[in-house]
Each structure stands twice: as structure tokens, then as C-alpha cells.
Amino acid sequence: MPFHQLTVPALPIVLPLGLLLMVVSALLLRRSGRLTGARLATAWLAGWYLVAVIGATLLPMPLAWGAGAGPAELYRIDPTPFTDLRVDDFILNILMTVPVAAVLYLVFGVRGRGRVVLVAAALSAAIEVIQGILVLTLHGNRWADVNDVVANTSGAWLGHLLFWRAMGSAAVRRLADRCRLTPETDQATPRVRK
Fold first, then answer.
1. Are residues 5 and 63 in contact, defined by beta-carbon separation less than 8 angstroms?
2. CB 97 within 8 A of CB 118
3. Beta-bridge partners for 13
4. From the CB of residue 124, how many other CB atoms can be counted at a distance below 10 Å?
5. CA–CA distance, 121 with 133 (Å, rounded to integer)
6. SS3 for 164?
7. CA 176, 179, 183: angle at the middle one, nearest 5?
8. 180: which of 1, 17, 76, 166 lies 20 to 30 Å off by Cα?
9. Radius of gyration over alpha carbons of the chain, in Å?
10. What is the pLDDT along the chain (194 residues), one digit of tens a residue?
11. Rounded CA gap, 109 and 185, in Å?
């Protein structure tokens, strides 16, 4: 079997995906009778945030297969936390997921810290599994690292703390109410542990 290579580029994937999410979100808001400038801005920002995360974690994606591709680079899979920690990557992964709590609240109405952390951990684990599968099957050049899951989950937890601290301000709550994509069913603000 001959050796094959392909690089899935970032821009031809992320730009159309971002534009598609903009159009779909505008249509869904209009169809539901909830289209306002603030809600549209929220939907667009959330969509581009998702696209940025996909671009940062998966793209560009060099792939190789066939007999000449050689063995999988197993060192790219790190299932042990804190043994080979790249501090800069760890900090960037924390920062990348700080907005998750705000996005989950504004787009889906998710409030609880446990749910935010669980969603972030599940999404982060899914990304790492995809990266690991690509390393094993198509010689992907990303790292499947449990430290990324820890950092992403920590970032979501920190984001929840910061977001709900900000929601203590009446002005921030009013702005969030204008920007929410889902109708408010329970006006009670979750308790913030001190």
C-alpha cells in the first residue's frame, strides 16, 4: 500500500462553519420570534467561540496513512496527569474554557457549576479522544493529553465562578437577560458559595 498524506487546513473549514452558524442562528431566532440584536450578537459570538475552539484543538490536521507512514507516534498520547506538564499549554487551555459558563448560560440556560464542569469535562475528553484516535490511525500530529482535560475543566470552573460573581451586579444581570437565547423559567440566581 503506498504512502499518502493530506493536510486538512483550518481556514477552509472554520470560515464556512462560522458563517453557517451565523445564518442558522439568525434563522432559528427569527423563526422562534426571539430575534433581537443582543440575542443575535450572543448567538454569533457563541458560534465563533465554538469555531475557534475547533480550530485551536483540531486544525490544521496533517494526516498520513499507508505502509510508508510508519508507526503511530504513541508518545503523543499522555494518559497520566501532571507527569509531563507543559505549563504554557496548561494555562492556555484554562483560559480557552473560561467563557464556557457564560456561553452555556446565555445559549442553553445552564446555571449550575456541576453541569458546567461536567459539560466542559465531557467536551474536552471528546476532543482528546478524537486527537488520540487520529494519532493512532492517521498519524495525527496533535497531543491527546489528560492534562488538557484537567486544564479545560478547571477553566470552566473558574469561568463559572467569575461569571456568577459578575451576575451579582444588577447591570450585568440586565445585560445577560437581554442577551439570553432561551427564555428565563426561574428567576432565582444560583447561590454562590463563599
1. yes
2. no
3. none
4. 25
5. 18
6. helix
7. 90
8. 17
9. 19
10. 568 999 999 999 999 999 999 999 999 999 999 999 999 999 999 999 999 999 999 999 999 998 888 899 999 999 999 988 899 999 999 999 999 999 999 999 999 999 999 999 999 999 999 999 999 999 999 999 999 999 999 999 999 999 999 999 999 999 999 999 998 664 445 555 54
11. 9
DSSP H helical ranges for the chain: 11-31, 37-58, 87-97, 100-103, 113-138, 146-166, 170-179
Residue 187 identity: Q
All three cell numbers of 57: 484543538
Q: Please tell me the number of Cα atoms within 13 Å of 43 on its side-chain side.
A: 21
The residue with cell 490544521 is 60
Closest CA to 135 of 187, 89, 74, 181: 74
For the chain, which residues make up each domain, given as ranges? 4-179
DSSP state of 99: T
The C-alpha cell 442558522 sits at 24
Q: Amino acid identity, residue 51?
A: V
In whole angstroms, give the CA distance from residue 58 to residue 16.
Answer: 16
Nearest CA to 155 among 84, 92, 83, 104? 92
**Rounded Cα–Cα distance for residues 49 and 71 (Å):** 35
